[in-house]
Amino acid sequence: MTKFQLGDKIPSFTLPTVTGETFSFSEHQDKHQSWHLIVFFRGSWCPVCKSELNDLEESKGFFEGENVHLITISSEKLDSLKSFSEEENLSFTMLSDESLEAINSFDVYYHGEDAPYEDHGAHGEPAYFLVDEKGKLLYQQRQTGPFGRPSTTELRKIVKYIKKNLKSD
């Protein structure tokens, strides 16, 4: 299922945010020159995702301290994500990918109508991509279901480990 190799430049994407703006990854990358942790999640209806996103919110200070911007993406409708973000007081970037633009370009598993088992209808599954300030892939993990994803604690360890052991260009 792996589409990218470590060190590959990830594709850019432009998606709507829950705050009513349009988010362009390449523009954001150029402006901030930071690392990004891109987290694909199933949707606001998923209790495991809700817990994970709340944990990420609690750890937002850690990621900011490491110069890592959090970006979350779901194939769920924008209005539902907006309500969810407001109810949970989530302050990181949350994007709606109803058109499956980013899901397809990142080769994130999509649980569609052709899936072998029923699971809350069609939706993208969890996936994680850590990229450096140049948009090069440092870490990736894709799931085909809701379980087995890295915890926020593990993601924090991954960031620290890679920063400590990163080879210079």
- What is the mean predicted local confidence, pLDDT? 92
Return the string of H and E elements: EEHEHHEHEHEEEEH
**Largest beta-sheet details:** 5 strands, mixed
Arrangement of strands in the largest sheet? 5-4-3-8-9
Overview of this protein structure:
One of its GO terms (molecular function) is antioxidant activity. Keywords: Disulfide bond, Oxidoreductase. InterPro entries: AhpC/TSA, Peroxiredoxin_AhpC-typ, Thioredoxin-like_sf, Thioredoxin_domain, Thioredoxin_ResA/DsbE_sf. Residues 4-164 form the Thioredoxin domain. The active site is at residue 49. With 169 residues, this protein is of the alpha/beta class. Strand 4 (68-74), helix 4 and strand 5 form a beta-alpha-beta unit. It contains six helices and nine strands. The protein has a single domain (14-165), classed as Glutaredoxin. Strands 5-4-3-8-9 form a five-stranded mixed sheet. The chain has helices at residues 25-32, 47-58, 60-65, 78-88, 101-105, 152-165; strands at 14-16, 22-24, 35-40, 68-74, 93-96, 110-111, 123-124, 127-131, 137-142. The mean pLDDT is 92. Helices cover 33% and strands 22% of the residues.
